[in-house]
């Protein structure tokens, strides 16, 4: 029997080729920010919990290798979902997240943008998964008597991020990042963007 999948929520995972140069660019910037050489070293409080560090906003023009990698990923997404070719991608938020042992990012969404995501530049073993939650408010009203979860029935999607990888999703999708249980830091650079002509 044919099945039509309506109102699907896409999540894209892109591994950046030769990501080491992007990682080095971001690591140098984050080190300077954490030392207070670029703004307030104390960071800000958003979804970060348990003492995790969230930087002030980063101007993507100051990280050209990252900007190019993000642009390449978003061009592939735009083509796949049919964004009009005359539209320009505008990054309206970019920041670093550093989570040490015991810290995490609580459940949240990203308002005032179309797509959001994170680039992971340090992902030690045990650093925690990215967890996307079913955005349909009525989907959990009754539990189906399923034998196993599938993408059609699961209330959440778990992804263990890897170094040099983008995870990109619609900004309205609720998500969190699990507690880092490693003795090393989990480091990512998150972003919001939209399209305009």
Automatic annotation (TrEMBL):
Source organism of this protein record: Thiolapillus brandeum
InterPro entries found in the cross-reference section: CHP02466 (IPR012668)
Taxonomic lineage of the native organism: Bacteria, Pseudomonadati, Pseudomonadota, Gammaproteobacteria, Chromatiales
Superkingdom to which the source organism belongs: Bacteria
Protein name: JmjC domain-containing protein
């Amino acid at each position: 029997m044919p099945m039509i999948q309506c109102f699907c929520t896409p999540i894209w995972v892109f591994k950046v080729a030769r990501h080491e140069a992007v990682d080095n660019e971001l690591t140098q910037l984050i080190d300077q920010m954490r030392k207070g050489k670029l703004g307030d070293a104390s960071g800000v409080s958003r979804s970060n919990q348990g003492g995790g560090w969230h930087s002030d906003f980063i101007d993507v023009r100051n990280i050209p290798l990252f900007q190019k990698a993000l642009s390449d990923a978003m061009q592939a997404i735009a083509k796949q979902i049919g964004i009009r070719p005359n539209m320009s991608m505008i990054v309206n938020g970019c920041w670093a997240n550093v989570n040490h042992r015991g810290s995490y990012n609580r459940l949240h969404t990203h308002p005032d943008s179309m797509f959001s995501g994170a680039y992971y530049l340090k992902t030690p073993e045990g650093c925690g998964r990215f967890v996307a939650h079913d955005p349909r408010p009525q989907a959990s009203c009754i539990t189906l008597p399923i034998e196993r979860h599938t993408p059609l029935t699961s209330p959440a999607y778990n992804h263990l991020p890897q170094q040099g990888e983008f995870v990109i999703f619609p900004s309205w999708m609720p998500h969190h990042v699990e507690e880092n249980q490693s003795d090393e830091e989990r480091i990512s650079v998150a972003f919001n963007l939209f399209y305009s002509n």
